[in-house]
Structure formats: C-alpha cells, structure tokens
Amino acid sequence: MKKTTFNKTRFFITSILVLIFLSGFFTQAISSNVIQDKQTKKEATTKSTKNETQTKQKESEKLVCVVTGEDADPELKIEYKGETYYFCCKKCMKKFKNNPEKYIKSKS
User: How far is 106 from 38, CA to CA, in rounded Å?
Assistant: First the structure.
C-alpha cells in the first residue's frame, strides 16, 4: 500500500514539475514572438522613414537647367568657376558657353 502511495506522489510531483517547465517554455516562446514583432515593426518604421528621407533628398537635389529652368539631364553639365551647371539640352549648353555670366547672374 505504501508503495502505491509513493508512486502516486512521485507521479503527481513529476507531473507538476513538467507543467511548470512547459509553462515557462511557452511563456518564453510567446514573449520571444512579441519581441520579434516589436523589432519587425520598428525595422519597418525605420525603413519607411529612411525611404521618405531619401525621396525628399532626391526631390531637393532635382537638377534644373540653368538656361530654361526645366528639368536637366544629368549627363549635360559644365564646370565653370568651381561650380557644376546642368542643362536640359545641347542648345542650352551652347547658350551658356557663349555667355555664362548672363545665366549665373540670373541664377543667383
């Protein structure tokens, strides 16, 4: 009779220990997922902010033709007195070369 009671007690204690271990394991797994979700959201927010900043920089760095004020072609450029000037077409480049001071003054 004592042996059966001992086995029942041992089984009961073992069961409780297993439950405690499993609850700790699942709690850790759940909190790990929560932390991962927070990190994922933070990374997404950071990427979104970074993309918005890059877009704003690109818009502010938009190249403008010195002669016409239209969007310039990055390939069409001239260095003059340490500054780089961009143009929308070769015709505007030619006008600038003929009288650069006229267009620099109107730029300022």
Answer: 52
- Contact between 11 and 5 under an 8 Å Cβ cutoff? The reply is no
Tell me: do 37 and 15 sit in the same domain: yes
Say how many CA atoms lie within 13 Å of 70 toward its Cβ: 7
pTM listed for this prediction: 0.44
What is the per-residue pLDDT across 59-99, written as a single tens digit (0 to 9) for each? 446 889 999 989 999 999 999 999 899 999 999 999 999 99
Which residues make beta-bridge pairs with 83? Answer: 80
**Residue range(s) defining the domain that contains residue 90:** 73-107
Helix H or strand E encompassing 40:
helix 2-60
Q: Which position has the higher pLDDT, 88 or 6?
A: 88
Question: Do 86 and 48 lie in a common domain?
Answer: no
- Count Cβ atoms below 10 Å from residue 73 Cβ, excluding itself: 16
How far is CA 101 from each of CA 15, 62, 67, 69, 82, rounded to the nearest angstrom?
Answer: 91, 22, 11, 16, 14
pLDDT of 87 = 93
